[in-house]
């Protein structure tokens, strides 16, 4: 047995024991081992983190324990999983059903897709309760309400009769947790439970899991790629890499002194808030992008006559500029309008106000008239897999903008494709491959190469590194900065990740509900935040250091959920910015409070 | 040679030329079988007069038994005879012409029209979609046979007209399916990217949307072959299709269906041919779809 028996004499008996677990997946080239000899013990009340990048086999472990491996492609090829005295690997589906939820429960990454959209919250919770005979039919609704109270859902009585789409992402994840804990399981598996959530919501959910764990003594298996979450939640950590157990250590030991090279590399790549190097203050160069009083509103049609009944005020009266060679970061939580601004700059959504790209006013331009402007501004999207056409070679796609703009033809295009590939650090041998033959990081390089092909002055990077593993993320960020240094590119860097923004931004704009809350030089905004919303965002970021506890979230007053949807003719109150210093502006309402 | 240097339209694409696709088709046993059947049918249609064992129109007494019924397969008549004592094998071979033309032409026009309307409505949305799709709904609600009869009554019945009439009736389902698929494809990020680099609608439609719709088009296109052949038979039955005594597989079935219990071969053989035709196109279509999908490269 490869793993040490770490059950000491005084230790409680483990609730879950995994020994030499191997999982194989059928591929074209034959069986591929995706999990190889994993062993661990999980004790009551303990949190064990399985950390690793994509393809490390961490989710496979969860599915193997739950007996949910996709058949017949994947199977357990060796090893044992013991829950108490029950051996799970040899269990039939009927018996397994009695164990799931009742003894081992799981919460998934995407709460929207794991809840049934056609059933009310009450029915979904009651279904779990009744399935395992936890309560009688008449008692079930009462118990469901208790569970919602346990997960600290606001207005629990009302939530019972609501459908998943009426709840926010955080509320949905709370409902998922309530369902998972409905039968008081011994083991809770949390597979990236907060990855799809905003950072402030993530902080709340992590707090909740910790509190509930303390109350119930549940053992938690936390699966995550985020070392900040690991540091905050875990007692012990297993670092996985390509299905192998790279390092197993108590969390403090791992972060203080990682024993393996890979763990060291992984930890070094994690962006840490407050650790970014200084950026030279850029000279006051030419303004490349000037946005003045930009508003984007989407109509909601309804009623018998399909008339506009309401409007989503996605962006409301936003003004900013980007200078040549400068990176402006746009931060905010989902739905704050940051991506919409990026799209408006490229004319992808209808907007009002004024946008000048390198002096050219783009208001009222048709798609065709927009073309010359697009040579100066290009965009790199979030998901590199989805933003490449699966049916076209990457070489064709990289130079497609040049074909569209009639800038080159024939062999010139081929030369250009090779040159672009070299610039983003890819081998020109790969030009004739299709997107699925590349890794996530390589695909994002291809997207960057495509954006570069028109030699633009500005690139809008919309969450461009969010979907990448941390080690790859760091490389792509380096590449982007390198390109900036070479070409004097400007970036509009849209992200929700404060630590990433700190690394790349010269100036930061914090947005909320379509309006700017705070704006200024990076150090002014991130190290001396004046708006309570900025402070809340910053304090919610998990700290990748187990010895330092994340400060408690500031009170939520003033940042409660407000909908950006208004009836026709109405709109949100315009926020006005006060100048604190030459390079720092903040919303006036915040000034009144502090 | 490196395709990187290929000059046409500045493509850096690993191109699948027609010859290359054919070679790949022949490498797959099922697709090769389908191609063989299609080739055999085309051969039969073109050289029908040369390979027919007898005159398909001659109503001979030898072709009937003592009770005046049709002869079962065997002897002078390899596939038996029909109610009028005509040689079934010869009629089927000549009928290949009609059915193949109808199946390929009518279905081809229906596929082009349906896919064209669907993709246009799906991509442009708004008013374009509203008008095109309401028109499609209208066509769907209109009884197909009635429309076919009206159209056939206006124009002199001929093979071409029959094919066009059938196409007019059959494009609707295709357009619905393609419309829905285009709608969801157009929301995808790689289409957004196209807008962000300034690509025009023609480029987006043909270079980026169409390749992704190909599998649906092929599936529905091959399914349409058999329904088309049968619709032609229905039209013939109603007297607005191919005019007797000209044979088609469909009208052979319809002429003889009442004698199914006593002379099953009269329905069985043409039915078998229709199934074979549809199957052949289906096999080739499936293989084509896989060959044209780069994510499935090297798989069978």
How many helices of chain B? The count is 11
Specify the CATH homologous superfamily of the domain at 287-376 and 456-593 in chain A: P-loop containing nucleotide triphosphate hydrolases
Structural class of chain B, please? mainly alpha
Contiguous runs where pLDDT drops below 50 for at least 5 residues of chain B: 1-15
Helix content range of the residues of chain A, please?
A: 25-40%
Count of discrete structural domains of chain B: 1
Q: What structural class is derived from the secondary structure elements of chain A?
A: alpha/beta
Can you tell me the residue ranges of chain A where pLDDT is under 50 for at least 5 consecutive residues?
1-9
CATH architect. name of chain B: Orthogonal Bundle
Shape of chain A: globular
Can you walk me through this structure?
The complex is a heterodimer of chains A (594) and B (300). With 594 residues, chain A is an alpha/beta fold. Among the domains of chain A are: 44-54 and 94-269, Rossmann fold, CATH 3.40.50.300; 287-376 and 456-593, Rossmann fold (3-Layer(aba) Sandwich), CATH 3.40.50.300. Helices cover 33% and strands 27% of the residues of chain A. Chain A contains 22 helices and 23 strands. In chain A, the strands form four sheets. In chain A, strands 16-17-18-13-19-20-23-22 form an eight-stranded mixed sheet, with helices on both faces. A six-stranded mixed sheet of chain A has the order 6-7-8-3-9-10, sandwiched between helices. In chain A, a hairpin with a 2-residue loop joins strand 19 and strand 20 (515-521). In chain A, helix 17 runs parallel beside helix 18. Chain A is globular and about 70 Å long. Chain B has 300 residues and is mainly α. Chain B has one domain: Orthogonal Bundle (MetI-like fold). Helices cover 69% and strands 0% of the residues of chain B. Chain B has helices at residues 18-27, 29-46, 48-51, 88-124, 126-141, 144-154, 159-186, 189-197, 201-237, 249-256, 265-292. In chain B, helix 4 runs parallel beside helix 7. Chain B is elongated. The relative contact order of chain B is 0.14. Chain B: Keywords: Cell membrane, Membrane, Peptide transport, Protein transport, Transmembrane, Transmembrane helix, Transport. Chain B: It is found in: Cell membrane. Chain B: One of its GO terms (biological process) is transmembrane transport.
